Amino acid sequence: MKKVNLFIFLLLPLFCLAQTSFKLNGKIADEKTAVAWTDVVIVNQDGKIINGTTTKEDGTFEVILNKGFYKVKINTQGYAEFEEEIRIEKDTNLGLIILKENVTNLGEVVIQSKKSTIEQKTDRLVYNLENNVTNVGGDALSAINTAPGVVVQNNAINVLGKGTSRVMIDGRMIELTGEELNNFLKSISANDIKNIEIISNPSSKYEAEGTGGLINIIMKKGARNSWKNTTTASYDQNKYGIYALRNNFFYNKNKFRVSASINAKTGYRNIEEGLDMYFVEGPSKMKAVTKLNEDNLSGKVALDYDLSENTSIGFQFLKDKSNPDFDSDIRIDQYNTQNQLESYVINESFLDRKTGNQTYNLHLITKLDSLNRKLSFDADYFDFDSKFDRDFIANNYASDGTFVDINQSASNLSNQDINNLSFKADMEHPLKALNLSYGAKMSFTKSNSDVVFFNTITGTPVLDTNQTNQFKYTENNQAVYISADKKINEKWIFQAGLRLENTQTNGFSKTLNQETVNNYFKLFPTFYTSYQKNENNTFSLNYGRRIKRPSFSLLNPFRVYISSNSYSEGNPFLKPSFSDNFEFVHSYKKILRTSIYLNSITDGYGVIFTADPETLTQVISRENYFKGLNYGIGETYSANFAAWWQSENSLYFLGSNIKFIKDINATPVNGLEVDFSTNNTFSLGKSTKLQVDFNYTSPYKSGLYDTGYTSSLNIGFKQDLLNKTMQIAFLVNDIFNTSYLKNDVSIVNGVKQVYNQNESNRFARLSLVYNFGNKKINVSERTLGNQDEKNRAR
């Protein structure tokens, strides 16, 4: 507590600085009349929204700003976007701003002007997903998966060839990862998202976690003194059906802002898996069919209040509950060396699982003075719990179907609880020579897990102490950072930063009486430069060092059986991995973008699938087993082939050079990967759109794994009704059922393993979206200070 008091005390003198504000006003009109009820947005030099308002009936507007440099942005339907840089040193009147109408009539087809689907900004790629019809009625996770160069696979959000990415909302972190992050993103309607930013090398302000950089979701915003409600209902049909209902309410009145949402989903998803293991004695082939329960209920409440013109305080609460129970039917066939069936095992299992998390956030933001200095404080508490009870029985049968005996019968129970408390402060400090930002964070994490394994082969549960474990883990982290950026002239921009993170961890297995301690101090530098040669050509070069910490569950040395011949276990000695990321980007006329990158990885960790020939069992473990390079070149091309046909296309060539640093009985494989995607939007009328998307990833080799191809053809249709207050959409996703993981091959200890997994990516969706109230709403999302720790909760 003394550290916290000292931390706050050192920053309190900043509140004593004087504050000076100025008025910025003007009037907006088109060539005929004033434009009323139009949003005017003010952003700073980092592109962050810091203020805004709505024009009155006569087209006039007024905002209060501190001294500094800004951009005024006006983007309203039916008009070309307006943007102007300004410098505020006194009260400023922009005068009359004329917006140009931008509507083209083509007989019965009417095409309205819209932003390009892909835009290259100074330090990020912006994806305007509202142009893609397949996102209507969908959620934030499916929207991210349609962004260029981003794939969602095995519960991870990855930037192609770079690794796992962190996710933010309006520049503020989400404190979840893996399955929990995906469930949270599924609770956000894609209809409320304006665009998605892909930031490959974030500044030092953000935690260094995540080798793939950041995915920033920008939510739609609108007018003050207004309210809005959006209800979305959808139905997905695969082998089973899934119903989803989402409701989001926003209210913004004078100094008070509130947002609330509730999201519910119910139904089932079919998962099919195959695992072939080729032993000397003959192959073992497993086929598993799982019926997974998709029941989920989540909600959010956020309150913000302006204490004064320059200071606001707020509170946010998020809660998520899931019951991902599942039934699995598994058959394991054992063959001899002549590939003749000798016997088989029927494994039936049921998992009763409950997961939940809740997050509390208290924050304060204040603008300090006329130099536009801004200070923010955050206090966060996060709690995650997971409980499961898995019962399974495996029976042996002869090749003719005769029952032999019980192979294995057991009950596996697990409880896990993770909580985190964190405090952080951030300061934006513009100077005449450059813009500074700096801050600090402290985080305290505790994780307790209890795994109990009972052998039930006799009908009476017997505790198996060899597979029972209690594990406690604590992690404390202290971080400080500083970042500076400088616009040299109209052509050159520089930015550099440094983040220092000091970490102390302690893991203790009560059952094994084993303690593991790891303390480390690391530096994470970042660098960025941009050169605009002319209106058509912009070049940039950036570098950043990142860290990938193991999730808490991976550090627990417990064993969980997946089937009678397959189990997974954690590793308390698992260490973080590090990467140095370089990227060079060229943008031509905002329609063609070339990206060349190189990532150097040290102490890389991952999953190793080992087969035990004596017991014919698969062991899934995690080790720091590799180092190496990932490299590649990518092209994105935006084209309007006709006034009614907009197309976004990307082509990536990716490669790897992975080497093993651990003595494992395997040979690394490396090769080239090709990734191609094309997204096409056809405007069939003023309120009707058709979407046709296709993507393809070639077979590729990297490290331990040789993976087969994936592809997907998606077709969507959208119809606007009732003056766009209602939308109905229909989507057929992965028409040919080719987007699943196939032929994932690894060879360890001389045993070849081939894995396939199909998670019901082919489905048909019918969606209905209804909006009412004043649709021009201005709601702020809030960053959460313990993002890095919650990201690793499983």
Automatic annotation (TrEMBL):
- Quick one: signal sequence residues? 1-18
Keyword Membrane applies:
yes
Query: Domain Outer membrane protein beta-barrel: where?
Result: 367-770
The cross-references to Pfam families, in alphabetical order and at most eight, read:
CarbopepD_reg_2 (PF13715), OMP_b-brl_3 (PF14905)
Its membrane topology: Multi-pass membrane protein
The record's listing under InterPro entries reads: Beta-barrel_TonB_sf (IPR036942), CarboxyPept-like_regulatory (IPR008969), OMP_b-brl_3 (IPR041700), Plug_dom_sf (IPR037066), TonB-dep_rcpt-like (IPR039426)
UniProt entry keywords in alphabetical sequence: Cell outer membrane, Membrane, Receptor, Signal, Transmembrane, Transmembrane beta strand, Transport
Organism superkingdom: Bacteria
Cross-referenced SUPFAM superfamilies: Carboxypeptidase regulatory domain-like (SSF49464), Porins (SSF56935)
Which locations, inside or outside the cell, does it occupy?
A: Cell outer membrane
Q: Which family does it belong to?
A: Belongs to the TonB-dependent receptor family.
Q: Which PANTHER family match?
A: PLUG DOMAIN-CONTAINING PROTEIN (PTHR40980), TONB-DEPENDENT RECEPTOR-LIKE BETA-BARREL DOMAIN-CONTAINING PROTEIN (PTHR40980:SF4)
Q: What is this protein called?
A: TonB-dependent receptor
Q: Which organism is it from?
A: Flavobacterium frigidimaris
Source lineage:
Bacteria, Pseudomonadati, Bacteroidota, Flavobacteriia, Flavobacteriales
